[in-house]
Amino acid sequence: MTLKEMKSLNLKRNERMDVDYIKGILQPTPTCAIWDKIWNFQAKSDDLLISTYPKAGTTWTQEIVDMIQNDGNIEKCKRAPTHLRFPFIEWRISSKDCGLDQANAMPSPRTLKTHLPIQLLPPSFLEKGCKIIYVARNAKDNLVSYYHFQKMNAALPDPGTWKEYFEDFLDGKVCWGSWYDHVKGWWDAKDKYPILYLFYEDMKKHPKCEIRKIMEFMGKNLDEDVLDKIMHHTSFDIMKKNPMANYTTISEEIMDQSVSPFMRKGAVGDWKNHFTVAQNERFDEDYKKKMMNTSLTFCSNL
C-alpha cells in the first residue's frame, strides 16, 4: 500500500486501526466489515492452509512450506514478499489490500494463511478436507512477541503498557482472541481433520525433523541435502536478513521496525526478560486453570 493510501485511511504514524467483535473475537474493523464474505470463502480441495495464533511462527512456517514446494530453490522463494506469496484470508486494510481478493485471484494449488480460531474458520476448509498446518507457541513467549508486534504495527490497536497488555492477553482481549481457546480449539480438531499440529519450540530444537514432518505431510520427497538447504535458509538469522521474509518491504507508516523489528528475537524463554516475579506467579496460576482439561502441553524453556 502506498503512503497516499495509508493517509486516506488515517493510519498515519501514531494512529491505530479500530477493532470490533466477531462472535466474541476481536478483529480489526475492516475485517468485520467483510465478515460475511470471509465466512463464505470457498476453499478448494488442493488448498494448503497455514494457521497460527499471531506471532507463533507463521512467517517461518510459510518460508519452510514455500521452500519445500519449490524443491529448495531459493531464487523462486524470493519472487515476492511473504504477504504476496501467501494470501492472509481475513486481512483487509483497503480495497487494494485484501487477502480474500488475493486468494480468489490466485491459481491453484494455493497456499493460504489465517490466524482465525477454529470456530471462525470458513467452513469450506474443513468441508473440502484441505490440509492444514497449525503451529502453536508457548503462551509466555507468544505474549511477549505479540506485545512487541503490536507496538510497531499501526494496523493493530495500541497495546498500551506492558502491564496493561499482560492483563489483556490473559483475558483474551486482543485481536484473534484468547491464546488458550485458540491452541486448544485447533488441538481438539487435529484428530478429526487433516491437520498437522506443530510446536514452535520443537521447530527451534529439532528444525530438520520438523521440516521433514511438514514435507511428508505435504506429500513431497526431498533429498537430505535439500532439507539441509531449507533448514539453513529458514533459520532465524538468515530470514532476518531476507527482505522477502522480514517485512521490510512494508511501509514504515504501517510497520515501524525502528520501534521493534518484525523478526525480533525468535527465541524460546525471552519471557524471562519481561515477566516480573509477581506476573509469572499470576500467569502460572491462571494457566493451570485454563489448561486443566486438555492433554495439550507446552515447553517454555529450552
UniProtKB/TrEMBL annotation:
<dbReference type="GO" id="GO:0004062">
    <property type="term" value="F:aryl sulfotransferase activity"/>
</dbReference>
<dbReference type="GO" id="GO:0009812">
    <property type="term" value="P:flavonoid metabolic process"/>
</dbReference>
<feature type="domain" description="Sulfotransferase">
    <location>
        <begin position="46"/>
        <end position="294"/>
    </location>
</feature>
<dbReference type="GO" id="GO:0006805">
    <property type="term" value="P:xenobiotic metabolic process"/>
</dbReference>
<dbReference type="GO" id="GO:0005829">
    <property type="term" value="C:cytosol"/>
</dbReference>
<dbReference type="GO" id="GO:0044598">
    <property type="term" value="P:doxorubicin metabolic process"/>
</dbReference>
<dbReference type="GO" id="GO:0050427">
    <property type="term" value="P:3'-phosphoadenosine 5'-phosphosulfate metabolic process"/>
</dbReference>
<protein>
    <recommendedName>
        <fullName>Sulfotransferase</fullName>
        <ecNumber>2.8.2.-</ecNumber>
    </recommendedName>
</protein>
<dbReference type="GO" id="GO:0051923">
    <property type="term" value="P:sulfation"/>
</dbReference>
<comment type="similarity">
    <text>Belongs to the sulfotransferase 1 family.</text>
</comment>
<dbReference type="InterPro" id="IPR027417">
    <property type="entry name" value="P-loop_NTPase"/>
</dbReference>
<keyword id="KW-0808">Transferase</keyword>
<dbReference type="GO" id="GO:0006068">
    <property type="term" value="P:ethanol catabolic process"/>
</dbReference>
<dbReference type="Pfam" id="PF00685">
    <property type="entry name" value="Sulfotransfer_1"/>
</dbReference>
<keyword id="KW-0963">Cytoplasm</keyword>
<dbReference type="InterPro" id="IPR000863">
    <property type="entry name" value="Sulfotransferase_dom"/>
</dbReference>
